[in-house]
Amino acid sequence: MAEKGRISVNTENIFPIIKKFLYSDHDIFLRELVANAIDATQKLQKLASMGEFNGELGELYVQVDIDKEAKTISISDRGIGMTEEEVKKYINQVAFSGATEFVEKFKDQDTSSIIGKFGLGFYSAFMVSKEVEIFTKSYQEGAQAVKWSCDGSTEFEIENTEKENRGTTIVLHVNEDSEEFLEEATISGILNRYARFMPVEIRFGTEKITEGEGDDSKEIEQPKVINNTDPLWTKDPKELKDEDYLNFYKDLYPMSEEPMFWIHLNVDYPFNLTGILYFPKVKNDITLHKDKIQLYSRQVFITDNVEDIVPEFLRLMHGVIDSPDIPLNVSRSYLQSDAQVKKISNYITRKVADKLNELFRDNREDYEKKWESIGLFAKYGMMTDDKFFDKGKKFLLLEDIDGKKYTLDEYKSLISENQVDKNDNYTFIYTTDEGLQHSYIEGAKRKGYNILKMDSMIDSHFIQNVEHKLEQIQMKRVDADIADKLVEKDEETKHELTEDEQTKLVELYKKALGNENLELKVEALSAEESPVTIVKPEFMRRMQEMAEMQGGGGMFGMGMMPGSQNIILNGNNALIARILKEENEAEAHKLARHTYDLALLSQNMLKGSDLTNFINRSLELV
């Protein structure tokens, strides 16, 4: 006779459920039920290995079936099974963990392969079911099979039944709102996402294969195994070849280019962590490469959102992290404060830094060839993680416009004679656009300066980071000042113009340009420097760029602020002297306007009608 009763749900044990099962994706139910089936299978294997079970194990696998007509999904295993008492204990008492008790009982044995907390994940079945049935038979000799059923309320029914083999079959009677889960493609997609690397064979559907050769060949149908029970990260790195790692990467990311290199993680103390992290070929758009790391717990896929588990810059890497020590389905604030998560994060950061340093040290030539991608990754890491910055100083490379690459120490040595200012600061001069800033580059080269290429999408942020964290280094874009003043020295160039001539020159330009408010300054520069130069002071330009990134020039309207650019008149230039001496005022104004437009052109600031007028005037002057 069937026994009826009420499922025990109370305030004390409902909170773990709330934490663990407020899922946004209903398809998670299949992961939980399959994981429980694998858990039950591994428990039996463990008992057999310890001599606690002496029967025949036979074929051990998990079977998933759908029946569209009956509108059911079934998940079956040949694992440990349950007695009636165990069903009452583990199913009826919600949030009582069978796995926890099992681990405690055999705490002196290796129970690391047990996935879940049996009994918890089971209730996710009701997200898609109007009724759930359990048919189970314990591995224990002479055990009676039992059937348990529940319609989603707190009431259940349990009775004896007939079942030939040990193990458990869970039958979900799918509700009308969830009938998409009765489609083979849907179930196959869920299993491929969550179960493709689970440690026990999972069968779903069938496939046809050809057996034999030639005339003796025949096509047969066999169960389709959807998972790889022995994924690469679970193997000994010493047994693996480069080809193995590359093939696994193609399996994970079939549309991606080959990775540059990889790290095989394998540690069991003070936490358990395995996995493989790949360095992809990073393009300028970092967002295309982010969030490709898959998180597993004992080969069960959990998420590809690892933002609270690994540092920001490591999210550029691809691959797999597998750790049972990362708490699942908990709040972000909990993850961020969890000591074990912090240890894992620090460990991965250190391993990545050590790998980059090893690559740089062992094969610098190859490292330099890959620097375009490695550089984005390394700079991103150094910007966002202080510990990584300290390690990164050893393998960071600075590239100049001639394509030569230097470490920080090598570069400081290179420029020590010519680019150290009066305050003993090393001046790193850089360009963000060689074509646009060509005239400024040429001026700096005439001074014997070396110019770095800083044209990646993160370099503007990296520049400020370097200045902030390294002493006696200042970064100046090549157009931040006239070449003579990029590196501040005590030297002074003699003025060819008197103070009266300088005043007259400024007034002439203001009148020629029709703007009395222009900030013009006469400087004593080298004679070969341009007659007029427009420079954007480093500090003001950075402030303006930051404001523009925040939208609309920022609250202070940085784009319109005076001093965001300086107009420098070269008092020692021959053309300036000619303009000053020109008796025909109209001609003097024409030449002044033309030299100013040339300065605008060099900064890509000459546009529209001003550009048209400049072209027409050039033709006249020719």
Describe this protein's structure.
- By secondary structure, this protein is α+β, with helices and mostly antiparallel strands.
- The protein folds into four domains: 3-206, Histidine kinase-like ATPase, C-terminal domain (Heat Shock Protein 90); 232-362, Ribosomal Protein S5, domain 2, CATH 3.30.230.80; 397-486, 3-Layer(aba) Sandwich (Rossmann fold); 499-621, Heat shock protein 90, C-terminal domain (Four Helix Bundle (Hemerythrin (Met), subunit A), Up-down Bundle).
- The protein is built from 20 helices and 22 strands.
- A nine-stranded mixed beta sheet has the order 1-6-5-4-7-3-2-8-9, covered by helices on one side.
- The termini are far apart.
- Mean pLDDT is 84; it is low at 11-23, 110-119 and 553-563.
User: Which parts are unreliable, with pLDDT below 50 for 5 consecutive residues or more?
Assistant: 11-23, 110-119, 553-563
Helix content: 25-40%
CATH class group of the largest domain: Alpha Beta
Main beta sheet: strand number and arrangement?
9 strands, mixed
Summed up, the domain count is 4
Numbering strands along the chain, what is their spatial order in the largest sheet?
A: 1-6-5-4-7-3-2-8-9
**Helix count from the secondary structure assignment:** 20
Corresponding CATH superfamily of the largest domain: Histidine kinase-like ATPase, C-terminal domain
Estimate the mean pLDDT confidence.
84
By DSSP, the count of extended strands is 22
Protein name: Molecular chaperone HtpG
Pfam family, one: HSP90
Keywords: ATP-binding, Chaperone, Nucleotide-binding
Family: Belongs to the heat shock protein 90 family.
